[in-house]
């Protein structure tokens, strides 16, 4: 019969709850976490802030280039657009454009650029050639024609821009402007708009 002696110091089984990590392993784990922190992507708001700073510097550099500023460049473009709008109104004086989609598209593009240029000019801190108040008076007058209508000319020139169709109310507005000029000539709505345009260009 084989006899196995009992151990001198019997050990108890390792308790599952007591998981011990050696100091070397703990130190290695801490170093890995620090390495991960270094390569972890930055927070989104920090990226956006950096982009905005870059954009601001770029705009500033462009503004100082060639002895001019972005505001001056915008003003030059605005003067050209006002001259083009005057030509569009003169075309409408000479011929009914109520069914001409190309005319409407060009009219709409020029209108949107003038609206944007007027907003930039109104925020300008420098003295400008074109009076922003006169631009505002012109755009408000055109925008609110015809009176007593739900959707006015400014709505169709802005909201329906880029669409290859002529809504019936817009066709009626363009026809009304043409007919009004045929009847009233120098006292027509179109003639008054051109007078406002000339005032803007001469200021």
In terms of topology, how is this protein built?
Layout: H1 23-39, H2 44-64, H3 70-94, H4 101-122, H5 132-143, H6 153-159, H7 168-184, H8 189-202
Helix pairs in contact: 3-4, 3-8, 4-5, 4-6, 5-8
Structure commentary:
The protein is mostly helical and 203 residues long. The protein has eight helices and no strands. It has a domain at 71-202. Helix 3 runs antiparallel to helix 8 (189-202) and helix 4 packs across helix 6.
Which band does the percent of strand residues land in?
under 5%
Which segments are poorly predicted (pLDDT under 50) over 5 or more consecutive residues?
Answer: 57-68
H/E order of the elements?
HHHHHHHH
Largest sheet: none
What's the number of extended β-strand segments?
0
Q: What structural category arises from helix and sheet content? A: mainly alpha
Share in helix? 55-70%
The averaged pLDDT comes out at 77
Radius of gyration: 36 Å
The number of helices is 8
- The first-to-last residue Cα distance is 124 Å
CA-based shape: globular
Keywords:
203 residues; mainly alpha; globular
Short characterization:
With 203 residues, the protein is mostly helical.
